[in-house]
Design brief:
Number of domains: 3
Largest sheet: 4 strands, antiparallel
Order of helices and strands: HHEEEEHEHEHHEEEH
Distance between the termini: 107 Å
Number of strands: 9
Structural class: alpha+beta
Oligomer: single chain
Length: 251
């Protein structure tokens, strides 16, 4: 729309034609006429207030046109447009960006997109090897974790480490602060390989709240394997008090 162009007189006068076009389209929320804008030669757009509840600041827009030397205008198109004060829905966000940890349920599928910064290309030399050579290398390649199309990238590794160390399995958790020892010295810690193994392990103590979870080596809980000795409580044989007695009273 061009507000500086002279509005065609026939189209500008077609206020009721524009209103009727909305009515015939089944619109019953047409308020007062707000103005008209030029759309070029023999075309103009009429604006009407929208009175529909929930649409404050929105405007009905109806474009009318006329043929050359025509004396009447007809409706070309209509639509509902937001104004500067209109209430708008939040910007649409793709589902893959809305998804949060814990949202994935049974049967849900979450494919990793191409170019995911958390992943890097894995070992891809299998197509260039003979079958016998591939068998010889497979155990080595598998042990290195490269027998996959994509593997964890450094970005993915750092993101995981940051997420884990700041979780309830990290060093700042209340249970870790009160623990008699750290996971790094616990006999129930299962070592993991790779760079992450330098800072994290897997808890295998069924009595620990972290059982089956990745824990930082400076995490800890009361079920530490050396809880008795690290707490300063000596391990001794049973001692009997043979000098004192308890007065149980008499019946």
């Amino acid at each position: 729309m061009n507000a500086t162009t002279t509005v065609d007189k026939v189209c500008a006068a077609a206020v009721e034609v524009a209103r009727q076009g909305l009515t015939e389209a089944g619109v019953d929320s047409v308020g007062e006429h707000l103005g008209v804008l030029a759309d070029g030669d023999r075309a103009a757009t009429h604006l009407f207030e929208c009175t529909e509840r929930g649409y404050p600041g929105w405007t009905w827009s109806v474009t009318v046109v006329r043929p050359p030397r025509g004396r009447t205008a007809t409706v070309a198109e209509s639509c509902l447009l937001p104004g500067t004060d209109a209430v708008l829905a939040p910007a649409w966000v793709p589902w893959s960006e809305r998804l949060q940890p814990g949202d994935l349920g049974v049967g849900d599928v979450l494919p990793a997109p191409d170019g995911d910064p958390r992943l890097a290309p894995g070992w891809s030399g299998a197509d260039d090897l003979a079958e016998g050579e591939l068998d010889e290398l497979r155990s080595i390649v598998w042990e290195a974790g490269l027998d996959r199309r994509r593997v964890l990238s450094l970005d993915g590794l750092y993101l995981a480490a940051d997420r884990w160390v700041n979780s309830e399995r990290g060093p700042d958790a209340a249970v870790a602060q009160a623990a008699p020892g750290q996971c790094g010295t616990c006999g129930f810690r299962v070592a993991i390989t790779g760079l992450l193994g330098q800072a994290f392990g897997l808890c295998a103590n069924e009595y620990s709240p972290s059982d089956g979870s990745i824990v930082s080596l400076d995490h800890g809980c009361g079920a530490h394997s050396e809880a008795i000795t690290t707490s300063g409580v000596p391990v001794t044989e049973t001692a009997w008090d043979s000098t004192g007695f308890d007065d149980l009273g008499h019946a």
